[in-house]
Amino acid sequence: MIGWTPHTPRRAVAPACGIAAVPLFVGASAHVADFLRHGPRPYDRAPDRRSE
């Protein structure tokens, strides 16, 4: 977004950044919730790097 922000009116840039922040916040919240709920290794099927 850096390329178009200096040449675009602030009344258009602010809502676009706000709209982009919503899914970022939702995704980050989901990752934090999964980490708190299941810990750092939630999948048993994932390979364990320590066993190599």
Question: How does this structure look, described?
Answer:
- There is one protein chain.
- With 52 residues, this protein is mainly α.
- The protein contains 1 helix and no strands.
- The protein has one helix at residues 10-38.
What's the SSE blueprint?
Layout: H1 10-38
Per DSSP E runs of 2 or more residues, the count of β-strands stands at 0
Low-confidence stretches: none
- Largest sheet report: none
Instruction: Return Rg in Å.
Output: 19 Å
| Helical fraction | 55-70%
Oligomer: single chain
Integer average pLDDT = 82
Strand content: under 5%
User: Which sequence of SSEs, written as H and E, runs from N to C?
Assistant: H
Brief rundown of the structure:
With 52 residues, this protein is mainly alpha-helical. It contains 1 helix and no strands.
What are the defining features of this structure?
56% helix; 1 helix; 52 residues; mainly alpha
